[in-house]
Here is the input.
Amino acid sequence: MNKVATTGASVWKHAKYLALRAVAKACVALHKLRGSRKSGLKSIRSSDAIYLPAGKAAEYSKVAAGFYVGCPNRCKYCYLKMGLTAGTLGGDCVKLKKCFKSEADAVEVYFNELFGGTGGTVRPEILRKGIFITFTTDPGLPETFPLFAAVIAETVKLGVPVQFLTKMTGWMESDIWKDLLSIPETKEYLAIGFTLTGRDDLEPGASTNRERITAVKKCHDLGFKTFASIEPVIDFERSYLSVLWCSNFVDLFRVGLESHRKYDKTEVLKFVDDLAALPEKPWIYLKDSIIDLIGRERLSFGDNFVDACFRP
Here is the structure.
């Protein structure tokens, strides 16, 4: 893509973000005007934009938000490309979820569900647990970032903690990111994470692992809470090195095994022992996929090993 086309695309995405953020601001203002009136909205469990994750996803967060399905990162290990969900969630093209009429409608539905039946205040369970963005696509893609950023901008201003996990880094050069940086609440309530596997060959559409490591350090240096998803562990040495190289600027590592792959228990236990021996003693959460295999309590590996409810 030439420079003129790239600039034009960037301007269009920023304009899209500003339009969607205007919708978000209007939604928040409307809900605050409603005061304590009941809206009669459905529960989070059956909602369209905000939902309760299950299984391995629930170890990241008890509440998540999603607007799109499909992802062009083309990760070879992607769980969305396996099993019953492959046909609807595992495509390589980003699509708005069918329950939304438009991206503006998705914003409106999201804030209706965020406030729920409490009128002018955010649902208490969301304020306590925060929101994870997102499990059904990559929120840092050019196609998805404008909408997610618009929602994040107004969500953090309500005091809701947000976790943002991506394999992309280009969004950090955008005017949208600069706008998010201008919001004081962003650094207080937004935690930014990157998936690190050390295997660029299995993630052909994503930013390189080196680029992600550079990006997470930049986020840390800017004052953001940071985390890294060391999941799936594909190559033990590369996963270990990812933690080692980032241990001074990542606040929490979540480490998990690949679905549908058989691991040697002794090899996994040695990997965890190596993590426990790191001199920096970073905060580490071992996911159930590891704990179930090795048969030990996750907190038994050291004071820096934490449970699922830990927040740095």
The longest strand covers residues 225-233.
